[in-house]
Structure prediction request, 596 residues.
Amino acid sequence: MSLKVAGLIVLVAVLAIGALIFLGGPQQREIKFAESVTFGRLETYVAWDGSASCRYLLSQPPSYISSFNKLIVHKMGVDVIASGYAEYMRKYYAMMGFEIENFSCEVSGMGENDNFTVTFTWSIPRFARWNGDSWEIELDWVDRTMGAEDAISESDSDWIFTRSVAQTYGLDFGVHFSYSADLTFLPEGAADVRLPSETHSFQDYGGGSYSESLIELQQIGGRYVIFENEVFVTATENEMSITVDQLLNNYSPSVILYHGQEPDNWSLIESFEWARLDMKYGRDLRENYPVRMENSWHYMTPAQMFCCSALEILAVFGGEDITAVSPAQVTWPGQEEGDWAVCWRELSMDEYLSLAARVSELESIPEWFDTAAGRMRPSDVFYTFLRILSAYKESGRLPDRILVAPVPKGGLAWGNRAIGADNAYYLLSDTYVVVGGEGALDVLENIRDDLDNMGLVEEICNWTGSNISYGLYFRPPTSEEMLVSRRGQCRDFTNVYLAIARSAGIPARRVSGWIISGWQPPAGWEFAVTTTPDGKTVASHAWVEAFVPGEGWVPLEPQSSRPSLFVGDLPFDAYRQTEQTWIGALAGYEAARGNL
Prediction:
């Protein structure tokens, strides 16, 4: 059965269920529901060198969902919507270990009877990976548990959003059909294409919601095309009930293999880029990597690449070409040590050149390096070297200074405690959170400097709750703008807290969701409140979690202040909530500032 036919059967089944609800048994009133549809078409064109250009067209015919989306675009502005899409797309691809560039977004079809349409374009510099004799496209979550949790959170958000908007338009529930067609065009001349053995999948999300997909290999215009059809049905009458384990049990990563022209235009530095991406997104490093030197291919272990990257930095600085492969006997240490305080410190060119000179002379790699920024893990030094060479590849010059970005794996020492290195990404700015801004630093100057970490977390919460008043606005201000106006909604309280805490060196993340609440929204904000299938009233809300060594992630309500200060014990029960991931924090930074 083709997926298109399956979708039509689903539509008929839903109509039948609706009729049974209306006709079966005594009726107090007519049950009102409506359907809505989203069509998506993604085209990815893979070039012979592994890069890709992408175009995605999203279209929604007139419905209550498309009407709401048009309303939000009018109220928030296309620029705000485009910024949100940019962050989402970066996070989506980062979850699979890819960087994107040159993102653009165009919104059209804003008339009452028009299809609401959004067109995205972007590029992926490294999409297909050269393995030395063939190409590989791996579409798999870097961290499968985090990927599954994020996917379920997004599905939950879509489910309750659809339910909320339906009720705003006077409906009891809605059913949303998302049809997508993903076409991946392999390069001309690609041969021996191999797809995953599992090309059909069905995933039951519970409550009548499910997804079904089918992957096929086709030929269009003489090029091999991987064609995936998917339908995702979101039925809001009943709750989704899928668990992470259930999702992962039926999850099959897509790995596409093919033969094609080797990338003979790569330099040694270009060869290092896949190791940089693996380190950036926390993948396990491969046993060896194909590296192009002197017009031929070599295979290097990560330890060899580490020493070779140091030699290349020194060669670039001296205006020379590197000619020697690093010694085969160099091995990676069994364990690594590094200090939390090193994260986001800067190394000057003189400092990183000195570090490269030390690495280039190593016969064995130590467990840590003493540097001008502090004690660094070898993996963080290696990642720093790769980022220096990547910056050189883009600009043609070595950077004057480089931030120390930690590899988001393993631990770092914060005092006498070890914490996850990925927590460092909760210290970054994003589109609306300005870390190190004048306003945030002014607040910190007026907070006592004798507080421990927990005391600082509480005092920042007391400050936001005491100095900002509540007000609803569609366009989100930055944290610096909020520190001038001192008026905003939960979203804005959260962004101010994040800016101040992160400026103080406290990792903090936003949490968004729906809480059980009797809040009555003003006119125009009815969509922010809905009822659950079992009759609870819930409201959309945003709050914060701050990381305190020894305590872990501490939830807090930034709208609270003394004597009723809610830190560690919130004044509400969360019905659905989504915590920002470290990849989400990185995507927010890169959407605002460019690739790290």
In short: The chain has a mean pLDDT of 91. The two ends are 45 Å apart (CA to CA). The first strand starts at residue 33 and ends at 46. The longest helix spans residues 144-168.
